[in-house]
Amino acid sequence: MQIYKGFEAAKNGTQIPVFVSGRTMESRYNPQRDAENLCNSINEESFFLVLGIGSGLFISLLTQKFPHAKIIGLELYDEDINFLMQQELLQKLKTSPNICFSNLDNISDVLSQNYIPAKYGNLKIIEQRGWVNENSAYIETINKTLQKALGIISADYSVQAHFGKIWNSNILNNAKLAENSQTSFSKLIQGKTSKTAVIVAAGPTLDKTINIISVKSSRDNYFIISTDTAAHSLFKRDIIPDVIISIDGQSVSYNHFLQQNKKFKAKPVYAFDLCANTSAARHVIKSGFEVLFFTSGHPLAAAINSSSGSPLQTFFSGAGTVTITAVDFAVSAGFSKILILGADFAYSDGKAYTNGTYLDTLYNKTSSRITESEQTFSKLMFRTELKTISQNIKTTSVLEAYKLSLEKYMSQKNITFTKEDDIYNLNVNQKQIPPVETESSISLSTFMNKLKVSTPEESEVLLLPYIAWLRNNKTYKNLPYSNLVKLALDSIISYNI
Fold this sequence. Notes:
Blueprint lengths: L3 E6 L5 E5 L11 H10 L6 E5 L5 H9 L5 E5 L2 H7 L3 H7 L4 E5 L3 H8 L2 H4 L2 E5 L1 H6 L4 H40 L6 H5 L6 E5 L5 H4 L1 H4 L7 E6 H9 L6 E4 L22 E5 L4 H9 L4 E5 L3 H9 L5 E2 L7 H12 L3 E5 L5 E2 L9 H8 L7 H9 L5 E4 L2 E3 L1 H16 L2 E6 L2 E6 L15 H9 L3 H17 L8 H13 L4
Parallel strand pairs: 3-4, 3-6, 4-5, 7-8, 7-13, 8-9, 9-10, 10-11, 11-12
Antiparallel strand pairs: 1-2, 13-18, 14-16, 15-16, 17-18
């Protein structure tokens, strides 16, 4: 489809696009003046999304006024963009690294790839009146598309703004631990991948499905990968997982690891994301357990790993749920058959978690006749708005995002799956060959030396989550972006290794 049919010369000589309806995108009299008036109404640099590319006059003036601003011009269809590109001004604008054009179908991806709130601050949507009036029938669709895309970006930014500083600290400290306490991924999985990998999450339905791996006679058939929250529940049932995975950077996650059971001959290996709580990792190491550190997408962690020759494995964490990381661990290891237990992504029968997690111990300690533990669990569940799936099952937008992220991951990995009786059954149709481990090991000092001689453009990418935290902090939020980059860089370089 196409909404333009040609060009027409305005009275001042400017070539302006004409819609199929015969109306023009811009003024037939003085489009330059109208573009200037719209541009003059904008007083603050931002990330700009312009509805309607048109002749390019307005976008040209906007980039002259704010030369460092990022600008996306939106049209409904690719055919319209290609048609408008006949204009010499638009051909010139397209060569700018700060300007890109998108159709409506691609705008979500274009925004996610270009709009970085930590760097650009607020996003401002600018409506070119002629274009909006012509496409009034599409405005609701446009608004819904933008709201969904920006909602995902906003959620990700909120996480970065909350955890940015914690992640930086954890990454640096865990990298130091990894220099001396890294076990071998290939050794861990060697000879095991013919088994069925069982991912154990801590959803309420685990109480019903745990019997699959609780039968001791069948234990050798499974390679059990537990999330950190579910580990306590397994220990209490005398089930020792092969691996326990943690990606949570919060200090509260330390509670998962306080009561490690040493009476069993077999000991699990603990796999920690470099972003995970470093006190928990240090405690596990001191308790005599093997530790496997890995990365999951944080740019600083990836850079530290790369600077040492990439000795750490990289696993996917999706929307930020450890269940997906556990699945990717199994897929990366080369398992063809995978089961997932307790991945409810919902609250079932009025419960937030399976029985036996550390929360049971924590909440029961504060339980009394006036304030029972059930009330505390209810507060946990009702901290965000609940959505009803069925009479006994509720969920939230965050839990829905986790579920969608997992199922999207499986689709991209060519993994077919069914879910029956609260158990995901996965078949990996294209078995992966486990990556060959390098001979090198993590060296934090090597990374620091490279960072000190890197350019601002090279270093800022690594610092964006921490910059998000700075931008969200009232002490720093009004500082120029260049100052935020310097503060974030100084916080790493000053780290005592």
